[in-house]
Amino acid sequence: MISALSGFALIGAIVLTGWGVGRWGALPENAETVLGRLVYSVLTPCLLFTVVAAADLRVLLSEPLLVSAAAALLCFAAFAATARRLDRGAKVVGALAAGYTNANYIGIPVATYVLDDAALVVPIVMWQLLVVTPVALALLEIAATGRTSVRATVTAPLRNPLIVAVVLGLLVGVTGLRMPALLAAPVATIGSAAVPVVLIAFGMSLSGRRVLEPGTDRVATIVAVVLKTVVMPAFAFVLAIALGLPDDATYAVVVLAALPTAQNIFLYAQRFQTGLVLARDAIFLSTLASVPVLLLAAILFTR
């Protein structure tokens, strides 16, 4: 558990660095926006391509993944049903905040050091990248442009660098193609910069602002955080029991469901300029709230 919490400490240190950069003006005023665009257009696509190309696609066909996906969908729907006053873009961001798990940045160390198997988080990563992300980005694109035609719905994902990267990685993984090292190494290296840069940009967004400050959608943020850190693990537990999963698998899906909201949500909100404060506050608060929830899950399920 101490090793898992070190993942939180690492993230906190990088976010704090970003906050300091923003607080003391070490970079130009538009640096946050520039970093966000860099992450969205270059760094994250390289990371996603590398992850998907190397993944074992057979892990998508598993009962634990069914539980994780169902719990996420229930939280998406629950937020959408309770946030009718938000505009469409903010509602999509809020729904993602309520059910999109930080499977990479915190999930991998938690799966490694708490569950003793890093592979347990791979199905969730694939589910979110191949299913949730394309749908969410298509909805955000439609909300931003106002287009609701079938053509817009179909073509919007094809113009998104994140989804293109996932599709290309999937093709490489399915066909078994091997990229030459001269090409694979730079792509992987560029992708490795995505995590720290997005965390720094997130920290910069916190500079000079208060969490749940007046004038923001505080109720929607609180709802998203409660759904993500309390309701989603509860859903996962009930579904795991209903499917008759063994104790170790039940423990795993509950722990993974209790992970905080992914920083990717802030990236999407920034890219489409909607629900920015909601995404920022939900990520920050869910990260704090997930610590005691993870500790409680470990205490209840381990002997």
CATH topology: Na+/H+ antiporter like fold
Total strands: the figure is 0
Q: Secondary-structure element sequence?
A: HHHHHHHHHHHHHH
**CATH level-two architecture:** Up-down Bundle
Distance between the termini: 13 Å
Tell me which oligomeric state these chains represent. single chain
Membrane topology: Multi-pass membrane protein
Protein name: Transporter
Pfam family, one: Mem_trans
Family: Belongs to the auxin efflux carrier (TC 2.A.69) family.
Summarize, please:
It contains 14 helices and no strands. It is an all-alpha fold and 303 residues long. InterPro entries: Mem_transp_PIN-like (IPR004776), Na+/solute_symporter_sf (IPR038770).
Q: What this model shows, in words?
A:
One of its GO terms (biological process) is transmembrane transport. It is found in: Cell membrane. The chain crosses the membrane at residues 6-26, 38-59, 65-83, 95-114, 120-140, 161-181, 187-207, 219-243, 249-269, 281-301. Keywords: Cell membrane, Membrane, Transmembrane, Transmembrane helix, Transport. Belongs to the auxin efflux carrier (TC 2.A.69) family. By secondary structure, the protein is mainly alpha-helical. The chain has a single domain, classed as Na+/H+ antiporter like fold. It is 75% helix and 0% strand. The chain contains 14 helices and no strands. The chain has helices at 2-23, 31-54, 63-82, 88-99, 107-113, 122-145, 150-155, 161-175, 181-192, 194-206, 218-242, 247-257, 264-272, 276-301. It is globular and about 50 Å long. The mean pLDDT is 86.
